[in-house]
Design goal:
43% of the residues lie in helices and 17% in strands. By secondary structure, the protein is of the alpha+beta class. It has one domain. Strand 3 and strand 4 form a beta hairpin. Helix 1 crosses helix 3 and helix 2 runs antiparallel to helix 3. The longest helix has 21 residues. The chain is globular, with a radius of gyration of 15 Å. The two termini are 20 Å apart.
């Protein structure tokens, strides 16, 4: 949870500085920008898929994506046994790229807030989100 807060502060600072991670190449089409986002998300998911856990205390989560109205699309659950620095850097860049994509292409979506998991557990050596109603 502490890493989620630190990541959120870092992401907010990037937004304030106006860092352009999409690059200055405005000649890209919307589909090209979208393809880059898809590829980066697949890379992030592959990092997590290759990692495992052995106990609940090794599982954490981070906000993933940037809805046009604000907030994440989902929460990514991952084990702390992996290279979390690399993962969190990639998630931060992805979130910022998606935010910039949304602005550049005037993307709209629902404004429903996505709740974080109630807890994360290690199930069959993989971290899983648990939501209690």
């Amino acid at each position: 949870m502490k890493k989620t807060i630190i990541l959120s502060v870092f992401l907010f600072q990037l937004f304030l500085t106006g860092c352009d991670v999409l690059g200055s190449n405005d000649n890209k089409t919307q589909q090209e920008d979208l393809n880059e986002l898809i590829a980066q998300k697949e890379y992030i998911l592959s990092l997590v898929a290759s990692a495992s856990c052995s106990e609940n205390s090794q599982c954490e989560y981070v906000a993933l994506g940037s809805k046009p109205c604000g907030g994440p699309w989902s929460y990514l659950v991952y084990p702390s046994t992996m290279d979390t620095k690399l993962l969190l850097e990639q998630v931060t860049i992805y979130n910022l790229k998606e935010h910039q994509y949304n602005q550049k292409w005037s993307i709209i979506s629902d404004c429903m807030a996505v709740a974080p998991p109630t807890r994360v557990d290690c199930i069959n050596n993989k971290c899983a989100a648990v939501y209690n109603n």
